[in-house]
Structure formats: C-alpha cells, structure tokens
Amino acid sequence: MQSFHPPRRILMGPGPSDVSPRVLAALARPTIGHLDPAFQSLMEEIKSSLGRLFNAPDHACVPLPAPGTAGMEAAIMNLLEPGDRAVIAINGAFGGRMADMADRAGAEVTKVEFDWGLPVDPHQIEEALKSGPVKVLAFVHAETSTGVRSDAATLCGLARKYGALSIVDCVTSLGGITVDVAAWDADVVYSGTQKCLSAPPGLSPIALSPRAQKAITGRKTKVRNWLLDFNLLMSYWGGEGGRTYHHTAPINALYGLHESLVALFEEGQQAVMVRHARTHEALAAGLEAMGLKFLVAEASRLPQLNTILVPEGVDEAAVRAHVLKAWDLELGAGLGPLKGKVWRIGLMGSSATPWHVRLCLTALAEALAAQGFKADVAAAQAAADAKLID
Ligand SMILES: *Cc1c(COP(=O)(O)O)cnc(C)c1O
Fold first, then answer.
1. Which of 41, 103, 117, 176 qualifies as a cystine partner to 196, CB 3.0-4.6 A?
2. Is 217 exposed, middle or buried (0-12, 13-18, 19+ CB in 10 A)?
3. DSSP letter, residue 226
4. Mean local confidence (pLDDT), 3-25
5. How far is CA 208 from the centre of its chain?
6. Residue nearest to atom 12 of ligand 1 (CA)
7. 111-158: per-residue pLDDT in tens?
C-alpha cells in the first residue's frame, strides 16, 4: 500500500464543496478523548453556534455523527411510530427518500408529488393535511436534485394549523440561503456539513423543537434505530448532569465543523447569504449570455445549486468529463428523470466566489465548443463581471 494523495479538484457539483485550508488544518489537529473536558467545551460551543446558525434558540441542536441522510433518518424514525400518518412532499430525489424512510418506520404515508423542477405547492399540501389527523408533514427546503427552493415558512405554518409536526430538510439551504427555524416555527430541521458549510461530509446538524422532544419522550414504542434514538443521544450531548458514553463522537470531524462555523460567523451570516446570491447572479448572467437555459423558473431558483438544461446535440457526460480532465473541475450530473438532461452547478460555501464563476464559464464554454456548440466566452465573462462590480 501507499499513502493516498487525492488529485487537485475544484468542487462545483451538488456537494461536497471546496473545503478551505483553515478547515483542513483544523481537521489535522491532535485527536483527544471525547470525554476530555476540553472536548466537552468544544461540544457546547458547537451546540450553541448551531442554534445561532439555525436561529433556533429554543431547540436542541446537535451534530449527528453521520452525513445528511442521518439527519433525515433521525427526524423520521424519532417522530413516526407504526400507524402514524405522514404527509410527504416529493418534488425531487430527497422527498422520495423521506417517503421511503417513513414507510420503513411503519407510518401510513401520503405522498404529494410535483414535477421535478417545481416548488412544493402549499395548496396541495393543505388538501392532504385536511383529510384527517396527520402526525408529520415533511418536505425539502432546498431540493438539490433540481435546484428548487420551496416556501418553508408557509409549509411549516400549515403544519401548525393542522396540528402536525414539521420536518424540514435544510441540507443544502443552511449557510446558503436564509434558514430561520424560529420564524418558521419548525419542529425538526436537519442539515449536512459538505454543502454550504464547506466542511467535509460526515456530520448532520439537527435541531429539535420542545414539541418534537415531547413527542419523542412520549412515544408508545421504542425508536427503531439505536444510534439515532434521540432519547439516548441526549444523554451524551445533553450537557447538564454529566455525559454518559453513547458512541464515540467523530472528534476531528467536529474540529472541522467548528472551524467552518468560526469562519462563517467571522464573515457574517448576512454577508455569506449576499455572497451566494451575487455569485449566482453572475453565473446565471454568464450562462445565459452563452445561450444556456435554467430548468427552474427564476422565482424559485436556489443560488447555491444551478440546474442547466443540456442543449440539443450536446453529450452531457462528455462535457463533465472534459472539464474534469482539462480544468480539474467537478460539475454535477442529473438524477432520476433528469439524468443526461441537465448539469448541476454548485456555488456552495467556499465554492461561491467570483473566481469559481469565471473558471466555470471558461471551462464550460471550452467543453461546449468541443461538442460543436458555439458559446461566446467573452460575452459570458462580461455579463458575469457586470454583476460582480460594486
Ligand atoms: C445532500 C443531501 C442530502 C443527503 O445528505 P448526505 O450527506 O449525502 O447523506 C439530503 N437532502 C438534501 C436536500 C441534500 O442535498
């Protein structure tokens, strides 16, 4: 065997995003014990900074020791018991994953489905909530498979109106667009580290409301998975009264998350949102000047995930292969019904910079030209630059 040295890459797909040198340096600091007092104070600081980032002062906020899907599984498995009714909005790959999990939890699942590329329609959700007692309404705030933003405030409001607990997938939204758990009055909200937080994958920040915690402690049956059972997990992350061993926290991964949060608050939450919005506007102007089109209508586009339609006669995979080989640039492919039909260009966290926008436009224009699609790269750069000037 030999040491593994990854190739240099620029990450502009649907996650992971580029990890900054300061986060990589934090990951390499010496491992200490997970019950060491110094580590416990790091855990407390991560909990409180996640509460600040989610704007969830009354929620219990912890990072789960596994990727974003673990947050999804924890939310579904802790809130749903066999026979409970769940309404699940599906407007892309991740809504479908939630419905599969709810089915495995033994819940009676009502799926409300939308075409890929559209946001969740609150009217159709209200129709489903009206039809009887519902325990949980689950939806994706930022659908990474399509690049669509749904209206979390309205959907969480509907859950409250009909007495359901809300589960909101904020894996791609947290750190890229506004996530305001208190204003939404949301119950369980989870995220991941490798999208707009720009830490490596492997952790899932989650926030649980007092209502959600009460529902979990009052369950009639045990949570079906052990690692993510919130009742057990909080004996470890709860703080007061001393911690008891539950699992061994991924210590160095938490150094990385902590550093990414320090960087985020140094820059300022508002400034981070503005940077994502501006780089998106520049990229969009450049792509449109090249003659490319978005899948999603402007009003519901995510700045951090740009889904671009592959023009007639262009080979989707060949373009991605070209930019990877010639520019070390990773772009995302389409999933499910969008396979072969779109590219997904991420502007997440450390990858949301003017430099990334310019590089992407140049690389894409070159790859398209190799396929016989004439893209005016000078016009694209000028259109992008116009959006980046103060
Ligand atoms: C990436 C993603 C997930 C899953 O996260 P993993 O870290 O890949 O497990 C879930 N939901 C959405 C919206 C995502 O973008």
1. 176
2. exposed
3. S
4. 98
5. 17
6. 171
7. 999 999 999 999 999 999 999 899 999 999 999 999 999 999 999 999
Q: Is the domain 20-265 a CATH 3.40.190.170 member? A: no
CA 44 to ligand 1 center in whole angstroms: 25
Cβ 140 under 6 angstroms from ligand 1: yes
Superfamily of domain 269-389: Aspartate Aminotransferase, domain 1 (3.90.1150.10)
Domain range list for the chain: 20-265, 269-389
Backbone angles phi, psi at 256, to 5 degrees: -65, -45
Q: Give yes or no for residue 73 CB within 6 A of ligand 1.
A: no
- Could you tell me how far CA 322 lies from the centroid of its own chain? 27
Tell me how far the alpha carbon of residue 170 lies from the centroid of ligand 1, in angstroms.
9
Alpha helices in 207-315 (DSSP H): 210-217, 230-237, 251-267, 269-289
Could you say which DSSP state residue 32 is in? -
What is the average pLDDT score of the chain? 96
Q: Is 343 exposed, middle or buried (0-12, 13-18, 19+ CB in 10 A)?
A: buried
